[in-house]
Amino acid sequence: MGAHERVLALVFTGGDPPTLHDQRDLTEPALVIAADAGLHHAQRLGYRVDVVVGDLDSADPAAVAAAEAAGAVVQRHPVAKDASDLELALAAALDRGCTEVIVLGGHGGRLDHFLANTLLLASPELAAVRVEARFDGATVLVVRDRIELHGAPGDVLTLLPLGGPANGVVTEGLRYPLRSETLHPGSTRGLSNELTEAAAVVTVADGVLLAVLPRPDRAPPGKATP
What we know:
By secondary structure, the chain is α/β, with parallel strands linked by helices. It has helices at 38-44, 61-69, 85-95, 111-120, and strands at residues 8-12, 31-35, 51-54, 73-76, 100-104, 130-135, 138-143, 146-150, 156-172, 181-183, 193-194, 199-203, 206-213. It is elongated and about 55 Å long.
């Protein structure tokens, strides 16, 4: 595997199934991983699953058996465990050398699970991986240095710092530009900005951001603090 080779994993997790918007522009993955009941979403969309992981308390045993018979590796964990099914699935992607992960599903159900799994995307263990999640049509990307975001003029973009301040934040292609600014956890300074072009660039000198593009047809017009 070359040093710059892109190795994409699709990780399906439980909750509401991926929307059509979530499935846009997906390229052929090198690996498909199902976190527990995410197996059902993957199978309904016609993906051949390579790894099924979790405590499997929500997955249909017949679906698990079918995946295993088709060649999937099944990694069973006890219900009383120290990591969520999604965390185990992301670890499986890392173990297999993936450089990019797109998480599908995960919206709906318990709020605490949803919040925990969203914060999980910015785990230090994933620092070397491009991480994206698609939840109910919304796109979430982790920004550790520089990222280019694609959408349409008028699309809403929110920047949320995690684990401490995000310093030296610079944006291009947004209505309310940030020019080497600091975003602090607990502040709404990065809330509800807007793309002015089909692409925007966000750069952070130090720290971690979640860049959130809400589903276009559900994002109300908003205004970031100027």
